[in-house]
Amino acid sequence: MITDNTEGLLSPYRILDLTNERGFLCGKLLGDLGADVIKIEKPGGEPARSIGPFYHGIPDPEKSLYWWAFNVNKRGITLDIETTDGREIFKRLVKSADFVIESFDPGHMERLGLGFPELSQINPGIIMTSITGFGQTGPYKDYKASEVTLWSLSGEGYVTGDPDRAPLMPSFPIAYSFAATSAAVGALVALCHRSVTGEGQHVDAPAYLGLAWASGAEVQGLWSVDKTIVKRSGGAWLRPQTGTSSADVKYISLPLIYQCKDGNVRFMPFVEVGMLPSTMGLTNWVIEEGMASETLKKVEWRTWNWQTVSQETVDEITQSFSRFFIKHTKAELWEGAQKRGIQLYPLLTPSDMLEFEQLNIRNYWEEVEHPELNATITYPGAFVKMTEAPCRIRRRAPLIGEHNEEIYVKELGFSIKELLVLKQAKVI
């Protein structure tokens, strides 16, 4: 049993993290599991340090909340691997490393003489993980891969947004989050393979493939069943009405999101097996409080088919739900739904999440010390609970070059004078 609660499953392993914002999350996840992640930045710091918001709203490369969130559990050094001396220092670091993760465009590391074939000559067990838009091979490998490009080509854009307006995409980068997560999984599988064979390998993690499966079972499943193309429906649930031709298909529309007294909740009156008790439970609750229309009172959910009713009937039913929801708070609806077996969910705001009982009972939020600010900051915590090796935040994100002396002098044996020379030459 591990008794030192600072250790994790990956504590014996070292990771050299060359990623930009495409891949920060990969190193962060592996660091949460205990790996010694060394974040390598160019002298002066990573450009992503300029991404806001900032602590107390003060723009500062050391106060980016974005940087903090994705680079916790990492030590930090500065090194320019595009210089001759920088490449040689990097090769020395590779000798004692287990992983290299990078997110440059395909071919960049090879042009520097730091591709997988070269690094595996230095360290046969090295696992190199590359995070890109379209991968290391194929006709698209050299194409620019912005978030909107990947979102569109994955098919996600087509089903996201309102039906009468242009497609939408999330305001926060999603594509590379999937890529970085896939990269972390691939790296760990490669580690298992190495434990058997002793050999490292190159893990190719394209963001495009990470998004390809994320459109959901309905989008992919309906096409495979009857060639139905699911269209974007915004905050509504659309179903083609029975009897309409494919050339002139008509849809009925049910809202998925309802306004309540202090925010919004999500509810869908499904009538399939397993969901029927939920829909009947809410209907009875609405009737009890005297807010049901005559139409809702007469509904027989056991034989109901949304695709055979008129939009007018649908509107009368959902208007009853709307009148009911607006009279209650999210907390009242959530508590009542649990007692009655109703599948209803409040849409939590960030402040709601900080107070959410489930997260607090599981000690999800962690207080992280920032001694340079004389402050303690609340962070989202472990993505998994483990009984033997804790997954947790062990250190805040590094300051620019914070661990240069620790790694270059104490671990690689450079003198302070050599360090100053390298700094003046802008190698570190």
SSE blueprint:
Elements: E1 14-17, H1 24-32, E2 36-41, H2 65-71, E3 74-78, H3 84-95, E4 99-102, H4 108-111, H5 116-122, E5 127-132, H6 147-153, H7 175-197, E6 202-206, H8 207-212, H9 217-226, E7 236-240, E8 251-255, E9 257-260, E10 263-267, H10 276-288, H11 294-297, H12 311-325, H13 330-340, E11 344-346, H14 350-355, H15 357-361, E12 366-370, E13 375-379, H16 404-409, H17 416-424
Parallel strand pairs: 1-2, 1-4, 2-3, 4-5, 5-6
Antiparallel strand pairs: 7-8, 9-10, 10-11, 12-13
Helix pairs in contact: 1-7
Q: What's the CATH architecture of the largest domain? A: 3-Layer(aba) Sandwich
Elements, N to C (H/E): EHEHEHEHHEHHEHHEEEEHHHHEHHEEHH
The average pLDDT value, as a whole number, equals: 92
Give me the count of strands: 13
Looking at CATH, which topology of the largest domain would you report?
A: Rossmann fold
Beta-strand percent range: 5-15%
Largest sheet: 6 strands, parallel
Cα distance, first to last residue? Answer: 40 Å
* The first-level CATH class name of the largest domain: Alpha Beta
Query: How much is the radius of gyration in Å?
Result: 27 Å
